Amino acid sequence: MSDIKSNSRSATPISQEWAVLRVATVQDAPAIVQVYHDIYQGTYSYHEYLNPEFIKADITGGNGRWYVIEDVMKGNEICGCISATLDPESGRAYSRGMMVRPDWQGKGGVSRLFGDAAQDFFNYNKENIRMIFCETRTETLKPQSICETIGFKPVGILPFKDVFYWTRETPVLMAVYSNRTWESRLRHVKIVPEIAPIKEYIGKYFPSMKRDIVDIADVDPVPALPSEPVNISIKAQAYGYTTFVATTRDGDASISINFNAQCLNAEHMHFACDTGRECYFLLDALKLALLAGGTRYIEGYCPADDPALQRTFLDVGFRILGYVPAWAKNASGDFVDYVVFGIALDPLNPRSINLTEKAAGLTSVLFGGNL
User: Which of 254, 269, 331, 353 is deepest in the core (most CB within 10 A)?
Assistant: First the structure.
């Protein structure tokens, strides 16, 4: 069982009088791409979703699951789609949201289908799935409210990470968990003092975290010694992405990240370094290279039991953006909380975004009066 709240158990079929939800097939790929085109009019920043071949491969690849919304009053015309993908190694799934074509927006009844799809996705992957997370838009309250209604909780604020309709937006990072997640989660965390307030706030929404053992670790900053040589390599990828890799001169340590030219953000950071000193100089060099290339937002994360790396992020100029319980598995097989860090060149102004009460509370804890 999961924490998702839903009134139905299957995605085939689920009716909302005029709408029906069903699992998509490869034949639906062109229609799904058309949904993205109709909604975003060529402004969608993640170009893989505008390619039918990518959608087909995702449908048949085994880890992605797509649903289409059909209008039964108009010959079962596809008017929307919902999708999620699972990382089987971590049991972590990413909900890519609900898309509804403009002429069908506001008709009513569609919102509940998101919960039905999420529950079906949980059921479909019940042997492996531990959590679903999403990045929810804040142009209105509705997307957050829908997610909260079906059990998602806000766990992070990502200042002006995304671009939609050529405008930068601040998504809310949200998560919902399967009940068994808490049985395999490492309850002993070691965090620097700056992380304690956000961990305490997130813990209000997940009762199992009340039993945590929390060590507050004072970690000295990296000594101000001459910087070590760092090589930066840049490799173009499909769909407008670029991989930046910072490597020590001897090649023994590296940090990589993917840059999206369409929305000028960089995420999916990966560490392969052993010492705090290596991490410090690699992360600092990577940050400078990204900012020099026009990046407006940089995101990274690290375990909540690695205070040295947490301090490194802070010393390099990142700020805390969120705290996600049981994000990834450690070498011992326990699932460890992760802290989200970021650099955002566009300062967060809460008056420019719409937040639910829970998300507003999280924003206050993260940013206070220093916005």
Answer: 353
State the chain's mean pLDDT as an integer.
89
Give the CATH number of domain 14-129; options: 3.20.20.70, 3.40.630.30, 3.40.640.10, 3.30.1280.10. 3.40.630.30
Between strands 254-260 and 188-191, the pairing is unpaired
The token duo for 169 is 């937006």
pTM of the model: 0.91
pLDDT grade, residue 350 (50/70/90)?
low
C-alpha 242/C-alpha 235 separation (Å) is 6
Separation in Å, CA 330 to CA 92, 303, 326:
14, 9, 10
Q: Which long-range contacts (CB under 8 A, 24 or more apart) does 326-329 make?
A: 326/130, 326/131, 326/177, 326/181, 326/182, 326/184, 326/185, 327/90, 327/92, 327/301, 328/90, 328/92, 328/303, 329/89, 329/90
Distance CA 335, CA 181 (A): 8
Cα dihedral across residues 17, 23, 25, 28: positive or negative: positive
Rounded to a whole number of angstroms, the distance between the first and last alpha carbons of the chain is 39
Q: Which helix (H) or strand (E) holds 216?
A: strand 213-216
Q: Residue 165's pLDDT is what?
A: 85
For residue 311, name the pLDDT band (cuts at 50, 70, 90).
very high
Cβ-proximal residues to 275 (8 Å cutoff; 6+ apart), any chain: 253
